[in-house]
Amino acid sequence: MKHDDPKLIDSLAAEYVLGTLAGRARRRFERWRASEWHVERRVQAWEERLVGLALRLTPMRPSPHVWDQIEKRIGRTAAPGSGPTHSTLHGGHRISTLRALAASIAIFVVIVGGVMAWRATHPALLALATITNPNAIAPAWELRADADFRQIRAVARGGARPQAGKSFELWALPDSGGAPVSLGLMPDSGELTRTLTEAQRNALLGASKVAVSLEPTGGSRTGAPTGPVLFVAERARRA
Amino acid sequence: MAPNKAPNLAGETTGSVPEAEADDVELTQLIAACAARNAQALRQLYDRTAPQLLACMVRILKRKALAEEALQDVFVSIWQRAGQFEARRGRPRAWLMSIARYRAIDVLRAERAELYREAEIEQLPQLVTEGANDWSGAGRSAAALARCFDMLSADQRRGIELAFVDGASHADIARATHQPLGTVKSWIRRGLASLRQCLER
Predict the structure, then answer these.
(1) Residues of chain B with CATH 1.10.10.10
(2) Domain B17-123 has CATH 3.40.50.1110
(3) C-alpha dist (Å) from residue B184 to A10, A15, B195
(4) Distance, in angstroms, between B47 CA and closest chain A CA?
(5) What is the pLDDT at residue A125?
């Protein structure tokens, strides 16, 4: 979208926030919003103008299982009523550059419980993560791995659009805070199964997150992510 | 980073409601702690905002079970996107509510045929009736929004409310108000424009 008419942008932003901008126009606008700061600002202004309408609804308590599921999906536990300590509240400095990069793009992650996701067609490979863009209806990829992480399979689900002259590359993000380790390229369509090297396997075992970055065709030439990080996903924990 | 000197939103420049400001500050801190991977902070954020977000999602999705499933997606998304919030420097409740509304609208559009077939009507969250405290949760700009919303025509108010609160499409609004689609589209567009104009005064 190349329109620069502030009035048009503003009326699209208003209808997007209202929810009446629908279908393909809505998807297109979401991509535009994610890439253009001035469009995002218009959206934000409308969100803040209208939010009061929704805040007038009588609140409704969620069932207890909802939080249990959230905990499972983020791979952490937190007891109700116990707050963060002062130091952790302000401990945001260690967020890696990679995560900061990722933060510039809308990320949405679905974690798949390992045992739940056995597939009859691939009995040897357990679900590892589902990599999803919130603005897409379909997930981007499903990742699977065998029980001891020697082999991984990425299945393209259509939620990531291939770009000419670019490749999607998968990275393990070590919990130690060390440099991301490449796990190879992701398929634009179909699926790709790959046997990991010992170094890749160790990196994956030590990483609770994986990321996908946009790289030149054939992958990063430097061994580190060079393009934008488009997706970050929590990897399912194995019992 | 792009300049963060946002144009002031109407109603935000004058007056002061300390509780609303304290709420903004605390929620902003909790979101920052989520970005630093503090799960307790997410839990606190959940305790403080999930009932409100759920009410909005049930109103759009009409079924509590479906809305609760989508609410999980919302909090996983908040956990993942917490780092983005800092850059935008907005009001946390607007950010959180938007994530919830967009998710509910996406689920609704993807599943609406099924929703209407099931036609299972549950007790839906209601808009609290007119009165002094109606807009209290909305913070500083609430009074301005209430005043400007009141200046719209009844049709415009109804249409905007159906869309924003119930996730209605243009076609749904046309059906509900017995108006041609084109008419509905134009009075919503005009309604939004007047709302903006009024709020910026």
Answers:
(1) 141-201
(2) no
(3) 19, 13, 16
(4) 8
(5) 66
Residue B101: its pLDDT value, please? 97
Query: How large is the C-alpha radius of gyration of chain A?
Result: 20
Query: What CATH class is the domain B141-201?
Result: mainly alpha
Higher pLDDT, B157 or B4: B157
Look at B162 and B13; give whichever has higher pLDDT. Answer: B162
Task: Note the pLDDT tens digit of each residue in B26-83.
Answer: 999 999 999 988 999 999 999 999 999 999 999 999 888 889 999 999 999 999 999 8
Residues of B whose CB is below 8 A from A94: 36
Q: Do B7 and A62 touch (CB under 8 A)?
A: no
Could you write out the DSSP letters of every residue in chain A? -----HHHHHHHHHHHHHT-S-HHHHHHHHHHHHH-HHHHHHHHHHHHHHHHHHHTBPP-PPPHHHHHHHHHHHT----TTPPPPHHHHT-GGG--HHHHHHHTS--EEE---TGGG--TT-TT-EEEEEEE-TT-SS-SEEEEE-TTSSEEEEEE-S-S---TTEEEEEEEEETTS---EEEEEEPSSSEEEEEPPHHHHHHHHTEEEEEEEEEETTS-SSSS--S-EEEEEEPPPP-
- Chains A, B: CB contacts within 8 A come to 236
Residue to mutate among B30, B49, B81, with most A CBs inside 10 A, is B81
Report the gap between the CA of A212 and the closest CA in chain B (Å): 14
**Residue B16, pLDDT above cutoff 60:** no
pLDDT score for A196: 84
For the stretch A87-130, pLDDT in tens is 333 333 334 444 444 443 333 333 233 323 333 333 356 777 88
Report the complex ipTM: 0.83
Q: What is the mean pLDDT of chain A?
A: 76
